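Journal club prep, notes for RB
We'll compare a predicted complex against what the paper describes. Inputs for the beta-D-glucopyranose case:
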Amino acid sequence: MAKTVNSKKQNAAAKASAKANAKASAKANDQSQTTAAKTIILGIDVGGTSIKGVALKEGKEIFWCDEPTGKDDLAAQLESIAEKLASGAGAVFSEIIGVGVCCPGTIDGAKGVVAYAANLRLKNYPLKQKLEKLLGLPVKVCNDANGAALGEAVFGASSGYKDSVFVTLGTGVGGGIIIDGKIFEGNKGAGTEIGHMVIERGGDRCSCGRYGCFEAYCSARALTRRTRWAMEDDTGSAMWKNYDLSTADGRTAFEHMDGDRTARRVVEWYIKYLACGLANLANIFRPQAIILGGGVSAQGSRLIKPLKEQFEKELFGGSDYAPVEIKCAKLGAKSGAYGAVALFM
Ligand code: BGC
């Protein structure tokens, strides 16, 4: 026991000294190259389960990192990620134009304040101010789904569309709406919270406090919960061969849907609600395309094919007149981080 505690302490000390070294070398390099050209932008995407970061030099990716979301102060974790990105990119701080951050919840973009984020348990959190103080670099903050929509519009799947809707299916369900080539955010950036529209009145409770929200049915978290309930009900399901109630997640039912009735039913259940939410959005905005991002979108055609069939049935007037394409994000898990970079372009 004492040994574990000691080795934990040694690990922590080693981590702290590695961090100090990275910081010292970035700053030391800075002093010798104060006139370095500014060519690098860092983009960070804060998610409920992981934080992803990218360093782009003149539009080209030079370093990527991904780590679990910690429980410490958010700005402190982002400081260490920015340092990791800078040192991984072999960059000095004076070469960095700025750090874009996209984050779940209502973001006051002008002030860089996280006004309210249920999934991160943050309220009126001055992210920009804190991070600029820690890094000495300009910081811009936006909502994660808006960031991902921007990333796909600039670098990815929606670059050719005038009107598109980005839907992220991760820990939460978020939306980024592009109308006439511009992101629509609503009053003070607090709009497009599509995950919190009710699709099942009186249904499952959502993290926002309402019941039956799109997020309570279509987030990766909701899919995981539904999969585990289905496994509990069917102890003979093939899903038990590879998973138990603590390891089953949003991928489990998709992986087993071809040979297992219970898994197939979970996928059908998920697609029914997803098609309903997407058809609601399409009936309001009638975009040229809906782009799906977040963890669940990694299912690709296993998700898209049955989803399109159901969606077509629910789309107002069908697709003869103004068809709506449904596609997976081209940048995959990277859309948000790339969108955060785009805040400085
Ligand atoms: C939050 C949104 C966010 C989405 C995806 C939702 O719970 O309210 O702001 O975009 O999750 O992270």
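Talking point for the session: The chain has two domains: 28-150+337-342, 158-329.
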